[in-house]
Design goal:
Layout (H helix, E strand, L loop, with lengths): L6 H13 L5 H15 L7 H12 L3 H8 L7 H16 L12 H42 L12
Helix pairs in contact: 2-3, 2-4, 2-6, 3-4, 5-6
Length: 158
């Protein structure tokens, strides 16, 4: 049934669902910020499970946390992880790793640390900044957005 709807209609329905989330603007903003923070960590593949786990643990809005995770998706992930790597490398003062010429286990282990450490550190920095920004913006936008009256989509005549 949804395949007959246009992309714009889907976006409108998702906006309406987001605006109808139950909870105070503070709870929704905290859940969304938590999801954005987890979405910016290099845990691709288990981010939704982590978001729900931490939302339950911290008693935040679970649906908003899952929505926030979608800041990273297959389209945006390469750009985000590259930015995190560069931020981490810059702040840690690590040079770019040399290409691996010897595939010995020790060489691969060192190469892995040369990549994972900057990405991990950069993701914490970028995640904290983006989560704080998301919280502040969402806290101000949700009360205004809940007052919007979104008109019904015209139905097709059959």
């Amino acid at each position: 049934m949804w395949r007959r709807w246009s992309f714009i209609r889907q976006m409108k329905l998702n906006l309406i669902r987001f605006l109808r989330l139950r909870g105070t603007p503070d709870e929704i903003a905290k859940g969304l910020a938590l999801g954005v923070f987890i979405g910016l960590t290099p845990t691709f593949g288990v981010q939704m499970a982590l978001a729900v786990f931490f939302a339950i643990l911290l008693k935040e809005n679970k649906i908003a946390a899952v929505l926030g995770v979608w800041v990273t998706n297959p389209v945006t992930a390469p750009f985000i992880y590259t930015l995190e790597y560069r931020i981490g490398r810059l702040l840690l003062g690590i040079d770019s790793p040399q290409p691996v010429r010897n595939f010995a286990p020790e060489t691969l282990k060192q190469f892995g640390w040369d990549v994972l450490l900057p990405i991990g550190f950069g993701s914490i920095i970028l995640g904290a900044l983006c989560a704080a920004l998301t919280y502040a913006l969402t806290l101000r936008i949700i009360p205004v957005a809940k007052t919007w009256r979104i008109p019904r989509w015209p139905r097709r005549e059959r």
